[in-house]
Amino acid sequence: MNPMYLPLIPGLILGLGGMVLLLIGVLSKRDQTCTCTYGAVLALGLAAAFCLAAPDGVLFAGLLKTSLFTRFADTLVYLGAAAALLLSLDYNRREAMARFEFPVLVLFAVLGMIVMISAADLMSLYIGFELQSLTLYILAASARDSLRSTEAGLKYFVLGSLASGLLIYGISLVYGFAGTTNFISLAAILANGAGYGTIIGIVFVLVGLAFKVSAAPFHMWTPDVYEGSPTPVTALFGTAPKIATMALLFSVMLGPFGHLLAQWRMIIEVLSILSMALGALAAIGQKNIKRLLAYSSIGHMGYALMGLAAGTMAGTQATLVYLAIYLVMSFGAFACVIAMRRKGQAVETIADLAGLSTENPSFALALAIFMWAMAGIPPLSGFFGKLYVFSAAINAGLTTLAVVGVVTSVIGAFYYLRVIKVMYFDAGTPGFDKTASSVRFVMFAGALVTCLFVFIPGPLITAADAAAKALIG
């Protein structure tokens, strides 16, 4: 096979795999949910393997590109989607929402994400953005018998449509004033400066993408959608789409708009500060653990944006490392939330964890590890993620941003430690049902990686450094 066609294979596997699984589910007389789920995980694994083997290149006359940067981000997305599918196996069955369409929608969502990450043109960017968004709207409302899920899907659709409109309006302004949508051509044109119309268009593009990573003040959908969506869907929302959009933000802002860093850096700084502050303060009063994790994710995206505000290779590397660490911590935490089930019913309040350390010490320890890591307590992986982005911000002269990050980390530690306090010091009998093997695998594998990262950071840092050089160098 001609090596130039290798970058196409991951997308073909996801698209054709999704259609094959759809036909299997429709034509079979028996329930094929489990078969389709494992088939989707297999498709993601094959796509990841071909993605890692693909060479650098430009596809479809400059609409898409592949590089070490896109392959790094794609791999994180594949891992996140596979973990979400594993978490959905037992959950969907217990909640009577086991349908073969679920893994098919996840595959198409991932297809949209990798198109976003590989976009080399504003139009391919928008196509990937919409493919991802439309499938996620459906997934949010996939528990059709739940009013909360239906409400979450509707809210996400309405607010997501607004963000999509702002994004395409920004793209139209950039095209109108610059005369092209191609990233390379835009970079050449904007190297000589940009007019007010182009700057306004870039701001609208930035706002549309900020919505997808739930950066404050464009976070309004996050708590309600996280709480109302089925928990495996919430786990997916909190990881793969945010990683894809964050990678796209770096690709766009440091690529075609990189010469205008001085014009848009302040916006990123404001988004970062607001996100960190909101994530630290708004989560303090939360009683529902899914809403707590929603505000936590807003704060984490604020930390990740520090690398973009730095606008340097070191900042890009730091954010890529941070996103990889965040992926593991987040999925481990959501696996613990899925395991919170009493007498066949899911429970979500923090108070339900009282006494867990006595009844199920391994479960309590795993959740405690994720809470400590998210708080940034050494020597767990979360500490190193924050250390890298803080260092990148300081080296770029953004000392105030780093100080805000440290202060909000200290404040945010309160609600993470509160969860641990409830598990270990409050009296209670959780009486949780037996945890499914797939959920235990994600939970304990994530806890192990979170703990051992201090001993094995080298490969991840090396890969992130190579990816950052591919984007900026």
Describe this structure as you would to a colleague.
The protein is mainly alpha-helical and 473 residues long. The chain has a domain at 260-473. The protein is built from 20 helices and four strands. It has helices spanning 9-27, 33-53, 68-94, 101-118, 122-140, 147-178, 183-190, 196-212, 222-228, 231-237, 240-253, 261-281, 289-310, 313-338, 356-359, 361-375, 381-395, 399-425, 437-452, 458-472; strands at residues 57-59, 64-66, 341-342, 345-346. It has a two-stranded antiparallel sheet. It has a two-stranded antiparallel sheet with strand order 3-4. A hairpin with a 4-residue loop joins strand 1 (57-59) and strand 2. Helix 3 (68-94) packs antiparallel against helix 10 and helix 10 (231-237) packs antiparallel against helix 14 (313-338).
State the main characteristics.
473 residues; mainly alpha; two-stranded antiparallel sheet; two-stranded antiparallel ribbon
CA-CA gap between termini: 30 Å
Annotation field: number of helices: 20
Q: The biggest beta sheet, please? A: 2 strands, antiparallel
Element order: H for helix, E for strand: HHEEHHHHHHHHHHHHEEHHHHHH
The gyration radius over C-alpha positions equals 21 Å
Low-confidence runs of at least 5 consecutive residues? none
How helix-rich are the residues, as a percent range? over 70%
- Let me know the average pLDDT: 92
User: What coarse outline follows from CA principal-axis ratios?
Assistant: globular
The counted number of beta strands is 4
Q: Per DSSP, what share of the residues sits in E-state strands of 2 or more residues?
A: under 5%
> Strand pairing plus helix content: what structural class?
mainly alpha
Strand order in the sheet with the most strands: 1-2
